[in-house]
Inverse folding.
């Protein structure tokens, strides 16, 4: 099975672009959604995070409160690195399990969508970077996550620069809300990756 990855800064629209690959027989795996599952009550990841960052990051049901955890890590580069070190391992194991299941079903290709794609070793055989203007990233994060502008800026400033994603990519997609251009670019990449004629 062909596995490739999609990455970029928060708010770039990785999931939007990833979904456009689905008509080519590609299964989209969102690492953020996988992270939600490993944050559920009673999971080894939730237990390890609570032990490391303190019980205050837990909701009453024992799941991880992402907003509280985000408040801790997005203002401290070392704590963000510690979070990544813990979660990458669990996310990678969960995605490898999904890959085995999809391979058994005869899926043609798997697209892993992750902001930390390169750091977690999930990039596969090709990397697509999604980019968008900073103000658009900010707007999308605020709208999607219900954050104030200051919180959204803090989150973006804690991430790697756009140049990091672009310089490590085999393909670049500019997602500045031009839907027609987006679909055209996705089709070009799908053709180059031999996902279609």
């Amino acid at each position: 099975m062909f596995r490739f990855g999609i990455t970029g800064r928060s708010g770039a629209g990785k999931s939007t672009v990833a979904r456009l690959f689905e008509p080519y027989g590609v299964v989209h795996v969102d690492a953020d959604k996988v992270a939600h599952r490993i944050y559920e009550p009673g999971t080894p990841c939730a237990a390890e995070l609570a032990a490391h960052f303190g019980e205050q990051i837990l909701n009453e049901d024992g799941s991880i409160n992402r907003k509280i955890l985000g408040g801790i890590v997005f203002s401290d580069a070392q704590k963000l690195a510690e979070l990544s070190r813990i979660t990458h391992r669990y996310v990678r194991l969960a995605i490898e399990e999904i890959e085995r299941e999809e391979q058994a079903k005869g899926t043609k290709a798997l697209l892993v969508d992750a902001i930390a794609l390169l750091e977690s070793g999930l990039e596969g055989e090709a990397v697509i970077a999604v980019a968008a203007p900073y103000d658009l990233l900010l707007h999308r994060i605020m709208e999607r996550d219900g954050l104030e502008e200051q919180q959204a800026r803090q989150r973006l400033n804690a991430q790697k620069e756009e140049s990091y994603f672009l310089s490590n990519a085999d393909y670049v997609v500019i997602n500045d809300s031009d839907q027609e251009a987006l679909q055209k670019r996705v089709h070009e990449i799908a053709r180059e990756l031999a996902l279609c004629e």
